[in-house]
Automatic annotation (TrEMBL):
GO terms for molecular function: metallopeptidase activity. InterPro entries: Metallopeptidase_M50B. This is Metalloprotease. The chain crosses the membrane at residues 45-68, 89-112, 124-147, 191-211. It comes from the Archaea. The keyword Transmembrane helix applies. Keywords: Hydrolase, Membrane, Metalloprotease, Protease, Transmembrane, Transmembrane helix.
Amino acid sequence: MNLQFSQRELRDLAVAWLALGVAFTLLLERQLVAALDLGGNLGALSPAAVAETLTVSLLTVGVGFLLHELAHKVVAVRFGQVAAFRADYRMLGFAVVGALAGFLFAAPGAVVHRGRITAKENGLIALAGPMTNLLLAVVFLVPYLAVEAAGTSGFLAEVASRGLQINLLLAGFNMLPFGPLDGRKIRAWSTLVWAIVAIPSLVLAVGALFVL
């Protein structure tokens, strides 16, 4: 398998990763948003706290997004497709602006691929993204359970908690069978496979939203 990245693709991945990290930081650090308003008190900010939130965001939502998209690419290339990630700069801007307003809707871009392909192969390419997020959720679950059992807090606890939550939400959201989401392509190939993955993913996503 010949997995290659153009300079444009690497740039798009880096910009999307950073933009999502910034957007998520703005969503969580409302004091930073208040300070950015006219007349805001920048002196009241804790640079260390903002830097920590940005780092957590890049390691959780950023990594979850990057590996989700790279999984699409790897499987597409495996099936002989020409595949590359393309950032949607308009939607990235919308994500940052939305975070300033207190909500986050991120559609940072997608892996586009071309070539002859079957419905099953297209479904498997789509399935690779949510499955990657579910696997990442398992990875984050281990330190999450460890810090919960120890009753500790801090940077590691925040990364574990956010990583688990974000990846469960990404998996569940992307399994919805609507619009350009992965769930629609998977269901077009196999309703059974879609249901087997989507139902537990959506249940876990709701749990992540209200419990974690």
